[in-house]
Design goal:
It contains three helices and three strands; from the N terminus they run E-H-H-H-E-E. By secondary structure, it is of the alpha+beta class. It has a single domain, classed as Ribosomal Protein L22, Chain A. A hairpin with a 5-residue loop joins strand 2 and strand 3. It starts with a strand and ends with a strand.
């Protein structure tokens, strides 16, 4: 098993319930295939996971100069809950509801293929 290269993006204003299905599509796939899949998806979560995945790939290529993008694959993607921003939402008859803006943390680990 090769080295593990990691990238983390924290406190993104996106619900983790909407980002997780996108992350499930590219988990355990080759790096180039995962990047091309995310580039062609129309979801907001795809853009967010794409940026984090590109960052993990750049970390791998900068730390190990012998690596090529073809030698990488996505070993792990985790989408965790982040803090929730609480906002007030004014309603009829002087009432107030709480509006929860959910945030998420995305962690991507890229591993080089075993020899």
């Amino acid at each position: 098993m090769g080295n593990i290269y990691k990238a983390v993006t924290k406190s993104i204003i996106a619900s983790p319930y909407k980002v997780r299905p996108v992350a499930d599509l590219v988990r355990c796939k080759p790096y180039n295939e995962a990047v091309s899949t995310l580039e062609n998806m129309p979801h907001k979560g795809a853009r967010l996971v794409f940026k984090t995945l590109k960052s993990a790939g750049a970390n791998a290529l900068n730390l190990n100069k012998k690596l090529d993008e073809d030698m990488l694959y996505v070993s792990k993607i985790v989408v965790d809950d982040g803090p929730r921003m609480k906002r007030t939402w004014f309603r009829a008859r002087g009432r107030v509801d709480m509006l929860l803006k959910r945030l998420c943390h995305i962690t991507v680990e890229v591993t080089e293929l075993g020899e």
